[in-house]
Amino acid sequence: MSDKSFEISKWEVQWAWEKVRANKGAPGVDGCSVEDFEKDLKRNLYKVWNRMSSGTYFPPPVRSVQIPKPHGGGIRMLGVPTVADRVAQTVVARRLEARVEAIFHQDSYGYRLGRSGLDAVEVCRRRCWGRDWVIDLDIQSFFDSVPHDLLIKAVEANTDLPWVLLYVKRWLVAPLQQSDGALLERDRGTPQGSAVSPVLANLFLHYAFDAWMSREYPGITFERYVDDVVVHCVSQVQARKVLAAIGARMEQVGLRLHPEKTRIVYCRDGQRRATYEHTAFTFLGFTFTQRRARNRYGKKFSRFLPAISKAALKRISAVVRSWGLHRRTVLGFSDVARMINPVVRGWMQYYGAFYRSGLYPLLSRINAYLVRWIRKKYKRLRAKRKAFQCLRGIIERFPRMYAHWKWVPSVPSVW
Questions:
Q1: pLDDT tens readout for residues 43-92
Q2: Are 136 and 230 in contact (CB under 8 A)?
Q3: So what's the pLDDT on residue 301?
Q4: Are 233 and 135 in contact (CB under 8 A)?
Q5: Three-state SS letters, the chain
Q6: What's the angle, vertex CA 380, arms to CA 379 and CA 385, rounded to 5?
Q7: Full-prediction pTM beyond 0.85?
Q8: Could you tell me which of 225, 282, 226, 384 has the C-alpha nearest to residue 73?
Q9: Is the model's pLDDT at 15 over the cut of 60?
Q10: Burial profile 28-47: b = 16 or more Cβ within 10 angstroms, e = fewer
Q11: How far is Cα 213 from Cα 26, in angstroms, rounded to an integer?
């Protein structure tokens, strides 16, 4: 008979470690990296298992990291747990996910197996064609504002394992360690960046929003990716009524809709020609607005469609600039391709899934950077015309060398 307080298998801890290692990530407050943890792996994993099984595991502070929000809306606080703490959180997250996945709403897409942001965008696109009005919801500082008492109540209702509840409670109150070493105590919220936060966020919003919407407005559809939500309505009157009700519901559960970022949007296109203050919204990096399109017969028409947002374009353009390709003259063509292809291919797969032409200017700019790289690397090709001809020749001979040449094989004008 085991002398441990809780039945947690060593296999679970090993599995959790494999997930943490695959996700990589920065060190926590102890400065221990994934590589450092792995140097004494057996001992470190045993320590996590032993303490979790005996009920004596107490999480260390979470290292706080501030990053700018993608739309220029201030600062977002991320929490970076230690590697050992990420392993422990992954053990709990796995057990909790196994119980709650079955109750989650079909239109909840964030951090769920077999669902993705692109799935949510696709469903949103189709529903925008069928309903004229959208409520673009923004929950203000969601991860910093979640009430602990309601979150614990949601966990209690979905587990019969006392250790899952015990450790969730401890993680919720683990302090944030700021850059100057000061500890910030927490009485609400769950830091973004922790392994257990996604399932906790989904569980809270399942009761706070999904189940409530299904109960109060069963005929109204929505897509939710964690705290990013789009609601579809048949009229402006209905949209105003539902928005007011959602606002009251958020207040009831300790949250608040952002007064400036939450808005009602009219899905204006070639058939829907009324005027309204807002005729576009952004969801998961895609801006939905009126765009030109062609039907299968080649006839042009106007439709409400998603394409990569300006904010997303600005962000990934900054990444391309940060590569400093013109300074990497020690590399060859294939070396540069190996460096950038995985990243560019990821952008193409995600942002190119809808209205891919919105991504073409950025991909063409990569070709322009390659022309500049050629001019720096080869003295005989310093002239723009010669560098242009060199790149064109490479594209013709090796059209698959660079991922983006599949969509933009032409070289931009450099004169």
A1: 999 999 999 999 999 999 999 887 765 544 456 778 899 999 999 999 99
A2: yes
A3: 87
A4: yes
A5: CCCCCCCCCHHHHHHHHHHHHHHCCCCCCCCCCHHHHHHCHHHHHHHHHHHHHHCCCCCCCEEEEEEECCCCCCEEEEEECCHHHHHHHHHHHHHHHHHHHHHCCCCECCCCCCCCHHHHHHHHHHHHHHCCEEEEEEECCHHHHCEHHHHHHHHHCCCCCHHHHHHHHHHHHCCEECCCCCEECCCECCCECCCCHHHHHHHHHHHHHHHHHHHHCCCCCEEEECCEEEEEECCHHHHHHHHHHHHHHHHHCCCCECCCCCEEEECCCCCCCCCCCCCCEEECCEEEEEEEEECCCCCEEEEEEEEECHHHHHHHHHHHHHCCHHHCCCCCHHHHHHHHHHHHHHHHHHHCCCCHHHHHHHHHHHHHHHHHHHHHHCHHHCCHHHHHHHHHHHHHHCCCCCHHHHCCCCCCCCC
A6: 110
A7: yes
A8: 282
A9: yes
A10: bbeeeebeebeeeeeebbee
A11: 38
Looking up tokens 């230690």, which residue turns up? 82
Q: Across the chain, what does the average pLDDT equal?
A: 92
Of 94, 16, 15, 85, which Cα lies nearest the Cα of 51? 85
How many residues are present in the chain? Answer: 415
Q: What integer pLDDT is reported at residue 414 of this predicted model?
A: 46
Question: Cα–chain-centroid distance for residue 118?
Answer: 11
CB hemisphere CA count around 18 (13 angstroms):
7
Q: Six-digit token pair at 235?
A: 């009229």
